[in-house]
Write a structure and sequence with these properties.
Structural class: mainly alpha
Radius of gyration: 19 Å
Helix content: 55-70%
Oligomer: single chain
Number of helices: 4
Largest sheet: 2 strands, antiparallel
CATH superfamily: Transmembrane di-heme cytochromes, Chain C
Number of strands: 2
Strand order of the largest sheet: 1-2
Shape: elongated
CATH topology: Fumarate Reductase Cytochrome B subunit
Order of helices and strands: HHHEEH
CATH class: Mainly Alpha
């Protein structure tokens, strides 16, 4: 049984935005201070959108439980799949929060979400605090990237080796086997 259309929409929209944000964040390390002044508020604004989408997605999942795993999946595989799903949700919430704390303690300039809300007014600015929140944000980003790679790898395994219909639960153009 596949996920409903709204769960699929949220999944793929967030997947796209997460890839964009990862590339965006990675590229910011190479920007000058003036370029970062332009890019960081956009990154923070998109991060807020992702955080809100993650909360909507979490609420949707709570009210619309995912379809059962096929009997062909071992209990161990099911536990891993559930654990990875929980880790994704935790990171989709903690990563933007860490980014906002990083922005809130930023020392070089104000960071305004959507051009209005000044994040840097929330916390005292300081290089030590900024460095800690940046390190946490980057660490969560790398963990999320590793989870995405593992998730894609597991999806390919289910599609090409197990052929058990797991990918068809979330990929819109695939048919779920009967």
């Amino acid at each position: 049984m596949p996920y409903d259309w709204f769960a699929k929409l949220l999944h793929w929209l967030m997947a796209l935005l997460i890839v964009v944000m990862y590339l965006f964040g990675w590229a910011m390390d190479d920007l000058s201070l003036a370029e970062r002044r332009e890019a960081l508020p956009q990154h923070a604004s998109l991060g807020l959108v992702l955080l809100l989408l993650a909360l909507v997605r979490l609420d949707w999942r709570r009210r619309h439980p995912p379809p059962a795993y096929p009997a062909s999946m071992s209990r161990r595989q099911q536990k891993w799949a559930k654990g990875v799903a929980h880790a994704f949700y935790a990171l989709m919430i903690m990563l933007p929060l860490a980014g906002f704390l990083h922005a809130a303690s930023y020392v070089d300039f104000e960071v305004r979400v959507f051009g209005n809300f000044n994040l840097t007014a929330l916390l005292p600015s300081g290089e030590t605090l900024t460095g800690v929140f940046r390190a946490i944000h980057v660490l969560f980003g790398w963990i999320l990237a590793l989870l995405v790679i593992g998730h894609v790898g597991a999806t390919l395994k289910h599609a090409l080796v197990d052929r058990d219909g797991i990918p068809a639960r979330m990929i819109p153009f695939l048919k779920v086997p009967k």
